[in-house]
Write a structure and sequence with these properties.
Layout (H helix, E strand, L loop, with lengths): L7 E5 L4 H12 L3 E6 L24 E5 L5 H11 L3 E4 L6 H6 L1 H21 L7 E7 L22 H20 L3 E6 L2 E2 L8 H13 L6 E3 L5 E2 L2 E2 H11 L8 E3 L5 E2 H11 L5 E3 L6 E3 L5 E5 L17 H7 L7 H24 L10
Parallel strand pairs: 1-2, 1-4, 2-3, 4-5, 5-6, 6-11, 7-10, 8-15
Antiparallel strand pairs: 9-12, 13-14, 14-15
The protein binds NADPH dihydro-nicotinamide-adenine-dinucleotide phosphate and guanosine-5'-diphosphate-rhamnose.
Keywords: Lyase, NADP
Catalytic activity: GDP-alpha-D-mannose = GDP-4-dehydro-alpha-D-rhamnose + H2O
Cofactor: NADP(+)
Length: 365
Amino acid sequence: MTGINKKVALITGVTGQDGAYLAEFLLEKGYVVHGIKRRTSLFNTDRVDHLYQDPHETEQRFVLHHGDMTDSSSLVRIIQEVQPDEIYNLAAQSHVAVSFEEPEYTANSDALGALRILEAIRILGLEKKTRFYQASTSELYGLVQEIPQKETTPFYPRSPYAVAKMYAYWITVNYREAYGMYACNGILFNHESPKRGETFVTRKITRALARIKLGLQDCLFLGNMDAKRDWGHAKDYVEMQWLMLQQDNAEDFVIATGEQYSVREFIEIAARELGMQVRWEGEGVDEKGYDDNGKCIVAVDPRYFRPTEVETLLGDPTKAKEKLGWTPRTSFAELVQEMVQEDLRIAERDELTKKHGFSAFNYHE
Ligand code: NDP
Ligand code: GDR
């Protein structure tokens, strides 16, 4: 393993959507990239398998370590071993609905996890060497106090996830001010891609509609279709994470597109991409979406309603535009198209698998 003259980055959450795109991006920039993965009973490295390098290679530039955000001993050990120039703290229990079911674990990994990394940097005497990026979120705005939301908009978190992320946000600011560390928050609005987890609403929609199109699934069950989000492409957003760590001074930035669509609009655009039109009937929990043949393909399941909902988010990325040169490269239409086409490809593979007598995975969440 060589790190001589090369910048060294450590990514927590490297097996997640953003971790995978960021690892690719940093490797292309010539970094040595270390990632933390947690121990699971099945492989969890699908998103980074294409980056895998045999540990026996001498010039290894992509290295995975076992660790966990809830385990300081592993974090201190890895940071000491890696001596990173940059740490990207992307690991989190990142599902808002799940945070209502696992609030304590969410606080442990998402709030205290950030503290553990910052403390490790300090205890190891790396506060002048190691720059720190915290994956903050538009969920901090929750019950919105201003439209659109920018860096100065007051926070009003609406879930255990958002409250945990609020702690992480402020502890990052505090360590910057208290110890002069280069530590910053990227307040990122929703960003999606074909690598998005299947239980987030965009991927759930593109995956289900592709399967419905091929007859592998009957209906897509959703919660609040009135919710509005500012959706961008993850690949564009990870570049901003890196740029935030390349400035003269550490600052916090909103990254967003400045455009907003509802969940219902997302469904309509994704369906159109598959040559389907959705006709809506009914209201509230009785609302249903029908295809051209009058078959019900979308229905509401109140199980997916959240105890407290974030109804609308719209970002104002002016500061990032001015200071980081931010412009989203991918339009909303292109994002939906890319996700639908990739899920159609996967559904076609599943169709083939089924035809040969193997059962196609059909888990709904
Ligand atoms: P994902 O859910 O796709 O990835 C989360 C990553 O964290 C996975 O690698 C996961 O591991 C890992 N992880 C979870 N818990 C632990 C733990 N206890 N110890 C170690 N690793 C853990 O999230 P995204 O890539 O979408 O998001 C990245 C970060 O950005 C998250 O912190 C998220 O909260 C935040 N964020 C995301 C936005 C988005 O729209 N995507 C917007 C704003 C903020 P495994 O693969 O094993 O599950
Ligand atoms: P979000 O994303 O909560 O914004 O958090 P998600 O895609 O889960 O929900 C977006 C909106 O869609 C509504 N919705 C549903 N959501 C899911 N998951 N499943 C459904 O069936 C469904 N039906 C309607 C939700 O109620 C919500 O209003 C994401 C995560 O990546 C966070 O980690 C990140 O911080 C924020 O984005 C910014």
